[in-house]
Amino acid sequence: MKESPDSTNVPIRYRQPWERPTDKIWVEKLELCKTLAGKGGLVLLIGDRGTGKTRLAAEVIRDRISWIPMHDQYATAMEIFLRIRDAYAKKGADTEGSIVAALSRCPLLVIDEIQERSNSEWEDRIITHIIDRRYGANLPTVIIGNLTAASMERSLGESVVSRASETGGVILMEGKSHRQKP
């Protein structure tokens, strides 16, 4: 049985397909991201708020659900750190190791809102560890941030950006916000 977008933790707003037949550039970026994810790449989606980064990642997950029976995982950076901190407080059955292992081995991991973290040494090490494990296993990862290329590199560090350069790359989402009414 194929997983539904609901099982991936994709926000409700993005669970229904988004028809964008007239936006050729957005569709080209979607196809590029799907291709890179299909090859196990690490893709950094960057750009201003409202340019379609989260929607694009949701569409990549939706496409993969049609041909991969295991479910992918969507999480914001803050959700990851809150889950781990809850594990420290024994608020659930999960441990830090089990959370990191699950994120490290799901078929596709999308980490959104990467800029909404403190960039503490602990957070940096957790994110780098997860990405390194996924990189070593050739598992695709999409990281989304309301950042420029330079600020993404400062936030994630040279090791992560180097892995992205090798296996995927940076996709810059530009243009007018899709959230604004015409």
Run of helices and strands: HEHEHHEHEHHE
Instruction: Identify the quaternary structure here.
Output: single chain
Radius of gyration over C-alpha positions, nearest whole angstrom: 16 Å
> What's the tally of helices?
7
Round the mean pLDDT to the nearest integer and report it.
85
So what's the overall shape? globular
Query: Structural class of the helix and strand makeup?
Result: alpha/beta
Helix content: 40-55%
Low-confidence stretches: 1-5
Approximately what portion of the residues adopt beta-strand conformation?
A: 5-15%
SSE diagram, text form:
Elements: H1 24-38, E1 42-47, H2 53-65, E2 73-76, H3 77-88, H4 96-105, E3 109-112, H5 121-136, E4 141-145, H6 149-156, H7 158-167, E5 169-173
Helix pairs in contact: 1-2, 4-5, 5-7, 6-7
Question: How would you sum up this structure, described in words?
Answer:
This protein has 182 residues and is an alpha/beta fold. Helices cover 46% and strands 13% of the residues. It has seven helices and five strands. It has helices at residues 24-38, 53-65, 77-88, 96-105, 121-136, 149-156, 158-167, and strands at 42-47, 73-76, 109-112, 141-145, 169-173. It has a five-stranded parallel beta sheet, with helices on both faces. Helix 5 (121-136) links the parallel strand 3 and strand 4 (141-145). Helix 1 crosses helix 2, helix 4 crosses helix 5 and helix 5 runs parallel beside helix 7 (158-167). The longest helix has 16 residues, at 121-136. It is globular and about 50 Å long. The protein starts with 23 loop residues before the first helix and ends in a 9-residue tail after the last strand. The model is unreliable at 1-5 (pLDDT under 50).
